[in-house]
Specification:
The chain has about 350 residues and is α/β, with parallel strands linked by helices. Helices cover about 55% and strands about 10% of the residues. A 5-stranded mixed beta sheet has the order 3-2-1-4-5. The protein has a two-stranded antiparallel ribbon with strand order 6-7. It is globular and about 80 Å long. The chain starts with 12 loop residues before the first strand and ends in a 5-residue tail after the last helix. The mean pLDDT is about 90.
């Protein structure tokens, strides 16, 4: 569907769907006139999905589905339609300012979704399931464990700073990893008062939590590595690309043909410069703060690794520095080039079905 320039040329009706946790609202919109043919609201269950297909069958055989949140609330419906070989178009959640006069309701959002699909020059398809969805789940679980571990380490450090002096003395001069080892092995004493005893119990609990979360994150990373090696081992051969970075890139890319060009992939990653020209000024660009920020972070990680270890990248930096580029500008250029290289690898190298 990414090659279609006008949806009205290939379908008679577009079914717009506004998805929520418990219900989905759908509207059938005539592809030629944009008029609303019918509306329906169903439960977000297998029976509800079947009702939506029956609803679509009543209006046209040549149809497309425009769904908001295909990776979230609409994931179940998207999978159901995929099994039925339906054409599904992925839409982002609407910005409040774009809603008509601020109006908001589920049927109105379903109509807006269908009409937005009709107005788009380029159409996006939902991300795939299988290995990609497995990586997405593992990345989310690992990220949660890492974030929780970081919070626990901060709390442990703060408690050590405010601990009674006999306890604080045991941690003096230690970095956080050493603090964790010390706190996890501390034992209680019958001579301590309630403040000291409570502080030690809290420190020990936090330290053991940090260790457990680190083990959990390591298990998730191990599973991620297995899937990436099985699916796209060629990514791991690229400088600066480890299993977490590779998994993040694969989750954003999903499958061949989903992203129409390397420029679109760079825009998705927030690595494409945003023109800010006016009048005679034609060389001004803004930092792109949009797109998939996890993918942008993955590109940044690759850039930092190559700056440190890759000789070709060092020579490039030296050349651009002699041309007057700043360090930030050079990193932005590197991320753009990395996005281009990764896209070409993903689209050209054979992938396992």
């Amino acid at each position: 569907m990414t090659s279609v320039t006008d949806l009205r040329d290939v379908v008679d009706v577009v079914i717009g769907v506004d998805t929520h946790v418990h219900t989905h609202s759908a509207a059938a919109v005539d592809a030629r006139t944009g008029g609303v043919l019918d509306e329906i609201t169903v439960e977000a269950t297998a029976d509800g999905y079947a009702q939506l297909v029956e609803f679509a069958d009543e209006h046209a055989g040549l149809r497309a589905w425009a769904i908001e949140g295909t990776g979230g609330h609409g994931a179940g419906l998207s999978r159901h339609l995929e099994r039925g070989k339906e054409v599904v178009i992925e839409l982002d959640r609407p910005e409040r300012a774009k809603r008509r006069n601020g109006a908001k309701s589920d049927p109105l959002d379903a109509i807006r979704a269908a009409r937005e699909a009709l107005s788009r020059a380029k159409l996006g398809t939902p991300r795939g399931g299988g290995d990609r969805q497995a990586l997405s789940v593992l990345l989310a679980a690992r990220r949660s464990a890492v974030n929780a571990s970081t919070d626990a380490q901060r709390q442990l450090f703060s408690l050590v700073i405010a601990a009674p002096e006999p306890i604080r003395e045991r941690f003096r001069g230690q970095k956080v990893p050493a603090m964790i080892r010390t706190a996890s092995s501390m034992r209680l004493s019958s001579t301590w008062n309630v403040e000291t005893t409570t502080t030690v119990l809290a420190l020990r609990s936090l330290a053991r939590r940090v260790r457990a979360l680190a083990e959990e994150a390591a298990e998730h990373e191990k599973a991620i590595r297995v899937i990436v090696r099985s699916w796209r081992p060629d990514l791991l051969a690229q400088p600066g690309v480890g299993p977490i970075v590779a998994a993040t890139v694969l989750c954003a890319w999903s499958h061949p043909g989903r992203i129409r060009s390397e420029a679109a992939f760079a825009m998705l990653a927030g690595a494409a410069p945003v023109p800010a020209n006016s009048g005679q000024v034609t060389t001004r660009y803004r930092l792109n703060r949009y797109g998939d920020r996890q993918l942008n972070r993955a590109l940044h990680t690759i850039a930092l690794s190559r700056i440190r270890y890759d000789e070709t990248t060092r020579r490039y930096i030296a050349r651009r520095t002699s041309e007057g580029k700043t360090s930030r500008e050079i990193k932005r250029c590197l991320k753009r080039y990395i996005a281009r290289d990764l896209y070409r690898i993903l689209e050209s190298a054979p992938a396992r079905a």
